[in-house]
Amino acid sequence: MINSSRKPNALQRRRRLCDAAIQLLAEEGAKGLSHLKVDRRAHVADGSTSVYFRTRAALLFAVAQRMAELDHAALLSVMRLVGSRDATVADGGPSQLAKLVIVAAEEPHATRTKARYELMLQASRDPELAALLRPNVELFNVLLRRIVSQLQPPGVVEVDTAILKDQIAATTAFINGVGLSLAMGEHAVESAAQIDRLLAAILAGVVDSHRQADKIGDGEQEAPHAGRAG
Q1: What is the pLDDT of residues 77-101, one digit of tens each?
Q2: Is residue 2 helix, strand or coil?
Q3: Measured distance CA(148)–CA(227) in Å, rounded
Q4: What is d(CA 35, CA 55) in angstroms, rounded to the nearest whole number?
Q5: Residue 111 in contact with residue 22, Cβ under 8 Å?
Q6: Strands, DSSP E only, in 104-225?
Q7: How far is CA 76 from CA 41, 49, 162, in A?
Q8: What is the full DSSP assignment across 53-105?
Q9: pTM above 0.70?
């Protein structure tokens, strides 16, 4: 006789539990994460989460792995869209970076954004978690560098390495700040177009600051010669 009952797929069940845990992280923070709460949120029998993740640390690590998996797929998708140039910008549309930030504030991504910040706080005190999240941070930095290189102000054909470094630092701080405000429900920006306008001002401002610094440096070097002219 064939038994028609089927055991749940282990991988699918783990993902289901981790997705429920991500929702709890977003709503209650790391302190609100427990095996029983995950069971209830995932609508499974009490004790199910403990079968797959014996300790709270194991559960948190599995959630981080699931988040890393989802984020990696999203970043690779944007990387492919950007390619050697951001076609949306060339067509007059918002940059992929701006769209990525706005999408992060919309469900289902908003929940993941909040959970991500919780995990990052935990990772600051847990080297193992930090190591798990680091590859996606590095991938995001590669994406950011590629996008910033493409979004240079008019007239800038080839950007200096020092300027690009400062532009990336300023853009990272800006994007992180906007992302955090959106995760907290504070809409510091309203659209991808607004993000692009602010980003353009930041990149142009960094270029101008370097040009001004160069002018001041040249003036200081020429000053002694002017003094000897008398």
Answers
A1: 999 988 878 878 877 789 999 999 9
A2: coil
A3: 43
A4: 9
A5: yes
A6: none
A7: 30, 30, 27
A8: --SHHHHHHHHHHHHHHHHHHHHHHHHHHHTTS-HHHHTT---HHHHHHHHTT
A9: yes
| Residue 202 · residue 171 · CB < 8 Å | yes
| Among the listed residues 72, 219, 208, the one whose alpha carbon sits nearest the alpha carbon of residue 134 | 72
Single-letter amino acid, residue 153: P
Residue at token pair 């609508």 = 43
Structure tokens at 173: 């701080």
**CB-CB contact of 134 with 71 (8 Å):** no
Rounded to whole angstroms, how far apart are CA atoms 82 and 96? 7
Q: What is the pLDDT of residues 1-22, one digit of tens each?
A: 444 445 568 899 999 999 999 9
Exposure letters 132-153 (e unless 16+ CB within 10 A, then b): bbeebeebbeebbbbbbebbbe
